[in-house]
Batch of 4 targets.
Target 1
Amino acid sequence: MDEILQKIMNSLDEGEEEQISLLVQQALDNGFEPMTILEDALVPAMAQVGEKFACGEYFLPNLIVSAEAMKRAMTILEPLMRQRQQILKRTGVAVIGTVQGDIHEIGKTLVGTMLSVNGFEVHDLGVDVAPEKFVLAVTETGADLLGLSALLTTTMMVQRDVIQKLQEAGIRKQVKVMVGGAPVTRAWADEIGADGYAEDAIGAVEVARRLLGAGEII
Amino acid sequence: MRHTILSVVDPKIRVSVLDEDEIRRIHTATLDVLETVGVRFPSEKALSILEAHGARVDYQSMIAKIPGAVVEEYLLKAPSMYTLCGLEPEFDLPLDGKHSYLGTDGCGVEIIDAFTQEKRLSTKSDVSDVGRVADALPEIAFHWVPLSAQDCPVESRGLHELDAIWNVSGKHLQTESIVSEREMRFAVEMAALLAGGREALRRRPVLSIMECTISPLCHDAGSLEAGLVAAESGLPVGFMTMASCASTGPATLAGNLVVGNAEVLSALVLMQMAYPGCPVYYAAAQTATDLRTGAYTGGGPADYLFGAATNLLADFYHVPLSMGAFATGAKQPDWQAGVDNSLSAFMAASTGADMLLGAGLLHGSRIFSYEELLMDSEIWNMLCATLCGIVVDDQTLALEAIRQVGPGGHYLSHRHTLKHMRELWQPTLMDRRPYSVWEERRDGAREWAREKAQRILREHPGRRLEDGLRSELARIIALAEQRS
């Protein structure tokens, strides 16, 4: 393997965001195609990080810094690939956010990061998001997945409101709805008619892929 | 497997259950008992040593009354620090007042089989198997003879137990099951063989000896004489009291401490009279008698308090302590075992007990369980992390990271986290999985502990002794069996 691609793989493994930008730029300057950088360096390196996490060698922070490095590299590569009319294979389009009245952010952001390195196009609406905003975003992006986060027993009620608003707008069937957050249980997810539920970010990716009929996670 | 030993080092958390005045009162009361009540030494050899060094001896009742001044004089001769040695120096355990080490418990008579889960009488091969698992666990610093080799002849059983462990592990070995002068002579010979001669053994004691007292205020002839043989060879010798509140000791904890203290001190003084300066240690596993059955309970607040108090006494006398901790009375590795073993080990380690005994036995040190051994090791692992306390310095205060993350961000992906997260304690048996994962599998610590033990038993052969030494050990044991 070319030395520069190996370096990109190493910096992704270590989650070196600054370094990976420089290296990706350098590889492009050396004449590497964006698709080659993606498929021969970034994707296998991310898969390796996933394996290290699965066998217990890596912890959640490792996963996140590598995912962030991946995202950083993609901000350089994506526009170039678009110019070349190369279409990225997407697992799906996801809209996520923390529901109205709730400003807890970390869990939701984590799920977004994990979804995005697993091939999802992620539209993160942030926190304290009104039900109407979710509906609008789903319509505009044509999302196949909607992730609703709530950290309080009081705000998790809004998850139900969002699902109702989707029904009213007549788009409930075109999008899979996932709910999450500390007080959320499988029983609650069933009660409000959500399609999926997971307790952590890793589980969320698995559920999302299953809902959309995609295969193993990387 | 990596050869590391996990010990508590210089704990920041220090528990104190007795103040200086209280320790002194226990000491004074003990001297009173030794001088006016006396202790029974049913051994002419022991009695004559005691008499020659200032004790008042009645050969009829075999009771020796030792004046307080004599007790204090001879206790001063005991070294306060020395090292328990492994077959290799990497396993050496300095008893320097800064370390606490965990050993396996002993000496059980039944074992729950690692593969069939059947409970049965223990054999020599069980001693060897437990020795291998203990060898593989960094939490276990030294071996006690965990189980009785009941398929071996009574007169050489203790030697077979040493043989079983030395054939699979280089960690220090402390035996609590050799209680006759004759068998001890062979044990010393075996140890000298491995150390490279008698003088080398004196410098590097690869074996230490634990003898029991017989509460209240008695000794056993065989144990005393075996102890004297070991002391003569420079093997560290300890005497353990198991005085039990309301039966073999007074109902009150302080009174029980006095009785136990008198027993242990009288034996240590005897060793110093016979071989001044020989390495000795204090040992104790007092408990409270169960008031309904009269049984030795193992566990409960009395045990926890004894665990902390006894080390204060051992420190007062400047000798190391081997403390009975863990050793729950529970019948299986359950809630009771977890509570007992965590609290007793915490109390003993937080006062700086040098050696803790021990991991792996249930039902008051009678039934060995691999699951329990692994769970006790995890408890020890947690205690080692807990007792270190909190490090406060520029790095750990993390001001730079706090500035960079600011209000509302998160530390998950900060470099400071990546640098320091591995300092956070990680469980191997505690269940921190998502609920749904547990719901699906319904497994937990017991299953994982069993699997880990099975894996070690399948994959870890232990340290193989060279063939020449193996056959020499066997020859010494054969000799012991021949002459008897």
Target 2
Amino acid sequence: MNEILHVKTPVISNKPIIPDFYELIFSSEKIAKLLSPGMFVTIKINSFFRRPFSIAGISGNNIRIIYKIIGKDTNLLSKYGKNDSLDVFGPLGNGYTFSKPLLDGKKPVLIAGGSGIASLYFLASQLKQNANPGLILYGVKTKTELIKLDSLIKDGWRIYKATEDGSAGHKGFVTELYSKFAQDNGCNNHYIYSAGPTPMLTKLLKICNNLKINGQVSLERILACGIGTCRGCVVNTHNGYKTVCSDGPVFRIGELII
Amino acid sequence: MIKFAGIKIQNPVFIASGIAGTGEEYFKFTDLNRLGGFITKTITMNPKPGNQPPRIVETESGMINTIGIENPGLTKFINDKLPAIKKQFKIPVIVSISGETEKDYTELIRELNKYPDIIKGIELNLSCPNVKYKVKCFAQSPEMTYAIVRCAKKAGNLPVIAKLTPNVSDIAEIAASAEKAGADAVSLINTVTGLAFLKSGQIITGGLSGPCIKPIALRCVHEVAKSTKLEIMGVGGITSYSDVIEFFAVGAKTVAIGSSLFNNPSLIKQILQKNP
């Protein structure tokens, strides 16, 4: 039984990294110890529902979140300054699994859509303990939304970009980019990790099911309780309804019916 | 020690049905044994998969849910959930039940009656507005409320708390029926029927809960307290100790914390510490 904490902790830093995208750092020794890539925390901002944020990285006790301003709450969060008190609940959910036996003989392929890059960034930085760096396919609307992935490139990850307007990399969706890549180069040894908006993941699941590629995806849903009790955020799986907040947010590709 | 519906409790604060399942998850970060009592998520005779998602939508000061009483059914509840409930809870556990017929309620209670060391009472979910019964929801009819409470009292020895819906023209009349049928207490209120739009434009109808329904709950408790001798559990939009005091002031003997626990996971602790 994993412990969950509800803490008030000061903001260490909260700054824009690219237009509309912020990096927020706060510190919690206990939460940091329990976190692994793909898990998330919720933050109480100003609405009835707490807002879920996936973790982009940890460094010591410092926990890093990358978020996009998409509504009133994230806009308000972007105004938080150093030492403002942050109401954090977590860590929540089940993250990515990336054990050595699972990845034996596989090439990890990380496919990110928009802010989905956050949890995959954390995964990429941890995964090197168990497998050689593979590919990162990263799709956004336009090139100004691309977050720098320099440290991952340094680690040996190869990055392929897609923008909907063609301002950088492949013009179109990242799912099309992957589909093309898999057809041109083969995909037998690919193991997918993906996070992004639901329409993108739906397309990706179709591609993976057609090409019989295994992997894991992290789903985004509106959450109420965050711990699985209210049954509000369920998705349909081959084993019945599962909660995104507690059974997920990471699910095996073959498990989901969406 | 005080008594509510004949059940000995250490304080008057409960967790409402449907909020914390059977408690396991909440024990990961809070000691539920500091509460007065715990009410489980509603169970039914047969397993229910629940409604197709989307099931929740956020509103201005609350949420609408249409979960559809997803639950494993009576047998799985007894085999899989009761042992863990017994292990974890030292406070009275009340099992919330729902049925489509009087027979369902009778059979559920007869079975649950066999575990008096764990189960200290029954809450009748007569008012869940989400499930399409062949009849309209029981708690919208004085006669049906009477009939179900009566059969629940006859089916076993467990104290019976009738949870009523605010979606009626005269809540006092319904409560009077529950009283006449021998209910040990009533809990007021279940969610308020509402409608909201998802971002996609899709309509969600279901039960509205959260701080926005507190004035409705207070009004219902007040009306029932004035017109019956029933013991009342106040439920609806409690976000602080001062809310609890308001429910006591209009006649509730106990209170139950609902969906505001999602917003503030430390709410139980704060209320028990009497933080205003």
Target 3
Amino acid sequence: MEDNPLTEQESLELITRMINKTKHDYLDTGVSALLWGSVISISSLLSFASYYQNWGWGEWVWWLTYLAVIPQIIISWRDKKKRKYRTYSEDAMGGIWISFGISMFLLSYYNSLFHIPHAGAVFLVIYGVPTFATGFTRSFRPMIIGGIACWILAILSMRTPFPYSMLYNFIAAQLAWFIPGLILRRRYLKAKKQHV
Amino acid sequence: MFKDLNPILHSQLRLAVVSILIGVKEAEFTYLREKTNSTAGNLSVQINKLKEAGYIDVSKQFKDNYPLTICKITPQGVQAFEEYVKDLQSYLYIKK
């Protein structure tokens, strides 16, 4: 691009082109969504199965989520390092997901002390918040649907006893994160292939 | 009477830079060069002009031991851009 004079029409076209270039530039790798979709799905299924199999370690299954924080930190750090720009909406999304993580940690601790009745429903309500917010901000329909699905499953979970409520947890993890993660990953790899 | 279009912004490369920065919080120099398809020398000169006009902030950092230039639009830059677009629209409206 040179420093040529512009007509008014050309100026408007240039502004539109540049704004669109940045608007469509951000592509989520989908790795975080796949990671959490997998971890919550596996934990839910193991929790369900341990009820019938009487596995002694069954109640410790949810510690997997704490372990998953380590690869998540590495993913976020690598992603941040690769990015050549920052947007206001991405910063806001980062804040929402950090708040979600802290809320989940505190709620798990509270639940371990006081045993909330139908705790699965409370967790599902909270799963829905950052998922829906992310989908809404990025106009990404699979996550909007995923967020709404979490809230519907939360209502069902309020009337479903353990361990069956764990199956709702599994479905929520699939709809809110794993499936959207697969879609994001496919889009990312496709875009990457086009740029090579 | 119409106001003259802001000469700082009424230039291809400077307008492209400001249009990119209006949509992001901050951007690296290499990102701006990539998106505008400009040479490093020319972009550097135009960024300096925008900085002197107070439309953008330029900060220097280090990333993996390499120097990194980060550009960010200022409130003054946002206001100038909005006025520029408004003036453009009024020009185009009268031409129709």
Target 4
Amino acid sequence: MDVVTLASQLNAGTIIPEGIVTLTLLVVLVGDLIAGRKSASWLPYVAIVGLLGAIAALFVQWNGTSDTIAFLGAFNGDALSIVFRGIVVLSTIITVLVSISYVRQSGTSLSEFLSILLAATIGGMFLCGASELVTVFIALETLSIASYLMTGYTKGDVRSNEAALKYLLIGAASSAVFLYGASLLYGLAGGETQLDRIGIALSQIETPAIAPVVALVFVICGIAFKLSAAPFHQWTPDVYEGSPTPVVAFLSVGSKAAGFAFAVRMLVTAFGSLTEQWHFIFAALAVLSMILGNAVALAQTSMKRLLAYSSIAQAGFVLIGLIAGTESGYASVIFYLFAYLFMNLGGFACVILFSLRTGTDRISDYAGLYQKDPLLTLTLSICLLSLGGIPPFVGFFGKIYLFWAGWQAELYGLVLLGLITSVISIYYYIRVVKMMVVKEPHEMSETVKNYPEVSWNLPGMRPLQVGIVLALVATSLVGILANPPIDLAKASVQRSPILQASISPAKEVAVSRFAPVQSSEFRVQN
Amino acid sequence: MELQLQYFLLLAAFLFCIGIYGLITSRNAIRVLMSIELMLNAVNLNLMAFSNYLDPENIKGQVFTVFVITVAAAEAAVGLAIVLAIYRNRDTVDMEQFNLLKW
Amino acid sequence: MLTPLLVIPLIGAIAIVLYPDAKKSWVVATVFCLLSFGWSLYLLSQFDLSFGGLQFVEFHQWVEPLGLNYSFGVDGLSLPLLVLNSLLSAIAIHTNRKDLERSRFHDSLILLVNAGIAGALIAQNLLLFVIFYELELIPFYLMIAIWGGKNRGYASTKFLLYTAVSGLLVIAGFLGTTFLSGSPSFEIADLQVQNLDSVPKLLLLTALLLGFGIKTPLVPLHTWMPDTYVEASPATAILLGGILAKLGTYGLLRFGLQLFPDTWELIAPVLAVVGTVSVIYGAMNAIAQQDIKRMVAYSSIGHMGYILVAAAAGTELSVQGAIAQMLAHGMILALLFFLVGVVEKTTGTRDRSVLNGLMNPIRGLPLTSGLLILAGMASAGIPGLVGFTAEFVVFQGSFATFPIPTLICIISSGLTAVYFVILINRTCFGKLDNASAYYDRLEVNDRWPALVLTAIVLFLGIQPNWLLRWMEPTTTSLAIELHRPAIARVAAIDTIHQP
């Protein structure tokens, strides 16, 4: 059997995007070996080109074949995974853009950082499509171990060490718990590891058995850790505070998006028969995350910790869409993650820039920044307001879509809680904005008084500027032009068989009542 | 007397609980890593038992175990590297001392 | 036709930021404000007075999956408020301009607010309305927090929290209205509120009432308002009290009365009582104030109470009165805040026990004092000024439905006269302190906005038809909507008695 037939039998074409990223990783490694130190000037661009290539490959796949199942069922390259992989790759691209100058300033090797980041990306991409327990585990661990390494990347920094150790210990423990659940699943399914077969096997257990629920709880521990949903959030603030900021940017978006893809696939396929139970558990997680994330964020003094708690809270909001379990519910999850990608990375890009210029990330040090750096102030303000759900930025549309989907699915309590907690969130986001914009000249912080001349010509600053402007433009305009991304999200849900199978017929009727077709008919009659 | 599947599962569950106990109570970072290994080994035991009793033809569980062992090794390597880095900077591996970042 | 109202100020806001000379930013701002004012006057001239429905309708699909459309339209309820909005923005830009710090930012925020309020007034889609309604939040917050008085931090936070809660209640109410009724989209025209049972209707209307009641503000929900108005700079206070608060009453009429007519009728007595309490509470508090700005702020609570009573009565005439009162109160309050701002700037105090003898023709502020007297008279409802017209229509319209609340309101309008007499007596008359009082002469910029406003107040007082003619057809259709159940009942009885 030659390679070509083997590849076609395994349907290896579905992992071309991952292949491209892997190739890029190798090029970065070898390029660094051959060219040495000098390579730092061009390697990031190689990485970005490679990642763009992966996006192009994903785009081709989107319009491409209908046969999505690859590697004998181990990997599913359906529309859902394509969209999520796209989000992961996009977040890596922006992370690369914003990390160049940071890594350079920290005095560590850029190419190693890029290789680990690309490895994490590969793990995340595989996690988005993995539909078999072993693949899920390997993808999850690739992502996690690469993340631990990145977290501890600044070896000399004690805080980074400590963050890495905490992240590793909690992460390894939660993946062990997840594995224990997976091993139970393997046994309950009678020796099956493919998610869809596990789902079928579980649905055939007639009496309300306790064992599947136990397995579910264990699996959710692993998932919730990746989503940093309360009460599995303890690592988040510490890791966010201690690790290098570009890493945090990736963790907060790329890793979380992969986690959501994993959650959707795992729960919908394997636990289809336990929908009520996992909805209940996730509702509890969402309530806790929204309340805890937003309440604790109020008291933070460090910008990175603030963003950490905000990301916990945002995970809670996104869970509403997941629990809704309708077509628009899943679509709203995708759209919100897409929005979150830009606004959160924009926020982190600004935090990176500020800490590059001043070496601090205390909120009080931002006082009076508008006078010294208007672009930074504008971008950070818009990204934070967008995270808080203020129109007309993209976060508002994302949030309203989530709440809209949740309300349609009759999750009134969750949506109301989401609305209330987002009011709280506006308060702490605007505190930062106020600090930057409002403070009088004489109240300016010492840091800002000594703020260096804004100059974009230093090495590595241009890409950071590109990243910031990209995030600014996307955050301000994607909301107003929300139709195409929402259509994309809906299409990806419609074209994913696993989601279509899970959207129960009863809910379908409820949804079709709100179909926009009726609206246009109504209008014509008018 | 033939060994039943339950015995293996119970042993695995017991091991897993010991692992969790060690994870929670240990002050030494190395010990915590070892506890995690214990948890992973409980998983391995589970997988092997299921594989033997329920899936003797495809032995997917045994394959899974190989992967778990490999990944556990990688995780331990990374963990020890981080502990080493901390030890160089702080001269201690006591978890109670790692309080720069408040929980 | 309506898009320019949105686009002109937005372009203006960007143009100001890009305009090189920060000191001259007011020129750009004025140009854009006058453009938008001119456009709203043009719309006024094109408005078909015989038609009560929506005019100048614009409709484009926007975010279809959300049921959010770019859907605009005006009727007699929103069009006059649009004109007021542009007018007050122009006034606000010229309020207290001397030594204004960060003037570029200030002016572009005012234009943003202008665009936001215009958008909320013309939006015919619930979600679109929410977007614009929430859009004001941040600019106003920043305006209070940057250019406010000593306690601005406290006041701005209070404002932010109250307004955010108001937005939350409105969103919840709108989501509920749309989904519980099974409406196909958030278009107001598509809503099928009639599908709802009476209990959900009551709950939704309560959420909306609380949401808009905070913005208005009505009495139990008003506590943010005196602090905010007092701490805000005069320009901000003019916009806040003159037009932003009107979004609350506009929302009550548009989404309370128009969407839930039968439930509205059910709870109308409660609303009338709340309105009456607001009137008395506002007047009593105003009398007790030492701070003249706070006095004006409390007077505003009272005047918003009239609007609620009139809206609750829901007759053709009373709704017309409510709209007229919104306009009249917007202008009078803006004038009062402007004048109080001038007084504060020149004398350095707002304490009525310190102020004295501002009428002094040589060393005092004769023009400002004169206008202040006029504005106080207008606010108290002296005939010949616009306040009288509005209040008269309100009382006449509401009396048939709610005689006792209306009577109490009429009596309280006498209290308005009391505190304005106190205000004017203490500040304008008496002997000016010889030792310390050598006030600067007023600049042109401190005069003409007040003169313009006074001219309008006078003109509309003498020629009330110019105030009232715009809303007649709309209020007729609103009132018919409201009393349809009653009419149907009467018709049913008639048919029974016609064997």
